[in-house]
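Lab notes, practical 5.
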Amino acid sequence: MSKPVYITADSTCDLPQALKERLGVKTVPLHVTIGQDNYLDGESISPDLIFERYEEENLLPTTAAVSPQEFEDFFRPMVEAGYEVVHLDISSELSGTYQNAFIASQEFEGVYPIDSRHLSTSISLLILEACRLRDQGKSAAEIVQAIQALIPQVRTSFVLDTLEYMWKGGRCSGVAAFGANLLSLKPCIEMREGKLEVSKKYRGKIGKVYEKYMEERLAGKKIHGGCVSVVSPDLLPQETRDKLEALIRSLVTVEEVLFARTGSTICSHCGPGTLGIMYIEG
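Output from the prediction step:
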């Protein structure tokens, strides 16, 4: 008989707290530094503070991976309690977090780190699938195999209202090539083979850009798992959520539209006004 399984992730998964509690998912925080101040993503800092300090002090945060020792301390109680662990991390092309999780996993039996090749709520969608398989009684090894098979079907993209954060942070290949007119554009950034790349450029008011972007990303798609995620560093008003959900449901057949707020690691690089659409195609 296989051991019970914990599904875990790093904090960049941006899984809403209510879902973490309902699903029994544990997360481990990355580090965020602003000036001389150090914070834990999702625990001691919020997107609001990041944006405030940038506006007031022109300070962009830096982020750092979870260390191997932190991962050992994170995994150990679960392993000692008799669990196996399936753990998902932000793309190894963007952070050393997965590599450090892998290093730590070598100290234990039954700890399985997965390089998601994605970020934010795309990882959350994989978590939902992993939890569904866990609840069906699948073993950790079976869950890992199924999740790794799904990763190529994950679609991750977002539209930026301001390019300052990503441009100055150097997180996206090709952004600097836009040159002096960069800040007048609204690019769509897409995950491709674990990396962030510019896939399209929009102009116009951001509200209309959101609608055009969603139509182009979703029209005619088949959604695996019945869930599309909308993610933003901003607290979207209910009226905006309702409008976006109605648009999504007019474009694709879904059971759930999951709204989430990006954590501090992700918003450190995307800035306010960002909107992302994440789903698993199939």
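Observations recorded by the TA: Residues 43 and 108 are 27 Å apart (CA to CA). Residues 154-281 form a domain with the Hypothetical Protein Tm841; Chain: A;domain 3 fold (CATH 3.30.1180.10).
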